[in-house]
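The aim of this short unit is practical: by the end, you should be able to scan a pair of folded records and say something sensible about each. We start with the first protein, listed as its amino acid sequence and then its structure tokens.
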Amino acid sequence: MWLTRVLYNRRSKFDPLWNTFLVAGLEDGEPYLGCVDKIGTAFSDTKIATGYGAHIALPLMREALEKKPQMTKEEARIVLINCLRVLFYRDCRALNKVSLLSLLEKFFFLYYCFLLASNCNHYERRSDYREWYRIGHQLGGSQFCCRL
């Protein structure tokens, strides 16, 4: 509630904080996942994505939950990694380094930080690929595209 008031107050002064906050925790012993946007609008749901993920990843998560409503943690982790991989391929400014967290009763548990497996070999077939690769190296880039 406090976060919604702060963001709404800043928005009313025409000086919004350009952030969207995801809030996770336990409420009355049950898992809670909520979202507050830059104008103070708040909602909670069982699955939330922000930005581009709301358009791409959220439908993938909904589809997976329709197929199997009671997922194990490992199955949910696989769905999330698939969503992150799709988002990585769709956003030219994204990094393939991600972290996954799990909410337990008293604390957050960090699974691990890892790099998404990716393959940008399709760029080699483009006629302008070699030119962009050369320019990237001339500008000081140690790698181009998502080469791992």
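Turning to the second protein, read its sequence before its tokens, just as you did above.
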Amino acid sequence: MKLLNSPRLKLPAGRETVETVSGFRPTGSTPLKRGVNERFVRSGSGFTLPEMMVSVLVGCVFMAAMAVIFMTSSLSFARMGDYINMDRTGRYALDKMTSNIRKAKLLTTYNTNYLVFNYDSAGATNLAYRYNASAGVVTEEWTIAGTTTTNTLLTGCTNAGFTLYDRSLAPTTGVSTGQGKVVSVAWQCIGGTLLAQQSSENMQQAKIVLRNQP
């Protein structure tokens, strides 16, 4: 390498003397080959169009699979929640109806969707169970001294009904002495969650003995 115009410059005390190079011209050097430059440029380039399309396709397939798994899991959880809720509600309604019907004094009215019991000898307290098919609910109605209080036991029922049997467990419709002695209750409900409404059904059925019925 040949240096041109390189005067010496004196620096303050304690500093070394350096040479300023006003210009230089490399000698004996050769430019890089064209093939080397092209390989260097190609090595720093990004994705090509086919590579990008394949990457996008793989990402879409992965996202679709994750969406299917998420929807399936959500539906399973919704169905499980429906079954648990319906089982808990059905057990509560059945336990309450069993306890109250066994304590009733007399069955006075029987229909496939309506029952009325006298709860005391004077007839001042009455208990009724009613199935409203249009609303899909089963209600409990207490009438005390002319005042009626209604409690909703079940909702979302697609079918519910009462069946009356005599002492020999033969079906009957009579409520007079020696007639109805056993009441059978049965209902079928669907889940309250809209996501699992078409697949969540629960069936409950029991026979209850009227202990005080003559």
